[in-house]
Amino acid sequence: MADLTRARDVAQKMIENVKRVIVGKDRAVELGLIAIMCQGHILIEDVPGVGKTMLARSLARSCGSSFRRIQFTPDLLPSDITGVSIYNQKMSEFEFKKGPIFAQVVLADEINRATPKTQSALLEAMEERQVTVEGVTHPVPRPFTVMATQNPVEYEGTFPLPEAQLDRFFLIITLGYPSPEEELRIIDGQQTAHPIESLESVASPEDIQVLQDTTRSVFVDELVKQYAITLNRQTRSNEDISLGSSPRGSLALVRGAQALALIRGRDYVLPDDVKELAVPVMAHRIIVSAAARMRGIQGSNIISSLVDKTPVPGAQVRGVVKT
Q1: How many CB atoms lie within 10 A of CB 13?
Q2: How many helices (H) and strands (E) does the chain have?
Q3: Which of 5, 61, 220, 295 has its CA 20 to 30 A from that of 319?
Q4: What is the dihedral of CA 249, 251, 254, 260, to 10 degrees?
């Protein structure tokens, strides 16, 4: 119980710290922390100027971890990310110069502005926590998180991320425009200086590892696991979906629910935790059929519909629908 209390305190401190910079987007901040707690990666997608990069930078600073930013452009090469071997004349041998991927928090800014070949340079690091260059494997630091931002693919100069890479992101975050009141708070908050400049870390890499370990210890009932699996499997038989979610979707749902329960101060997961995370965890893991896209249906709409239609485990006890 002591570990749970300590982990929850660290999580709440990080949330409050990030909210000093990110105004009115409490759910986005919480989702970002959930991904870190689950050792996952974050994709932040929205139009330019709504705070995607600021959210990633604020989370990184709050973690107290080593941080590198990569600005993705069409001329960026894979070696610019992973690093390159250079011949050292004094030592008469090749020496590996590490690229910016070798940091605990890596911000891949505007990731969909780089070519697919360059985007794929992140795949091994995101999944295996290692980078292989010229046949030699180099582990990346721990904890390790990639926070990528992207503009909608309809904008000029963008390359859609391949399905294999989208599946490696734990969840996707959309920020949206602020309300008039929130926009006024943003203007007032940056009157003299940007809040990110004075933002300090409230956790250490060791705290993050404790947070991640404690998250895995949160209890998940077998019925809740089956509920997550049922939601995920229904994406594979839906007529509006041409490619359903992989088993990573079920795993991410359960782990994300554990993190959400911990943030809420519980040592057990509720079905509502799974429902709350279904859209950000699963919507980017499916491919909407061409016919559905023509009707203006998006992945988030389909997942929300599946959540509404799928009975919650144990509902028969309350006299609702028997599963």
Answers
A1: 15
A2: 14, 11
A3: 220
A4: -80
Question: 190-206 as b/e, with b when 16 or more CB fall inside 10 Å?
Answer: eeeeebeeebebbbebe
Q: From 293, 213, 284, select the one nearest 38 (Cα to Cα).
A: 213
Q: Is the pTM of this model over 0.90?
A: no
Full domain range(s) for residue 239: 218-312
Beta carbons of 101 and 82 less than 8 angstroms apart: yes
Cα separation, 59 vs 50, whole angstroms? 16
The count of domains in the chain is 2
pLDDT digits (tens, 9 = 90+) for 67-100: 899 999 989 999 999 998 887 877 778 888 899 9
Banded pLDDT at 256 (limits 50, 70, 90): very high
Q: From residue 30, give the alpha-carbon distance in Å to each of 45, 159, 224, 238.
A: 16, 28, 21, 30
Q: Is residue 192 part of a domain?
A: yes
Q: What is the mean pLDDT of residues 134-161?
A: 82
CB count within 10 Å of CB 117 equals: 11
With H, G, I as helix, E, B as strand and everything else as coil, classify residue 271. Answer: helix
Q: Which helix (H) or strand (E) holds 86?
A: strand 83-88
The reply to whether 212 falls in a domain is no
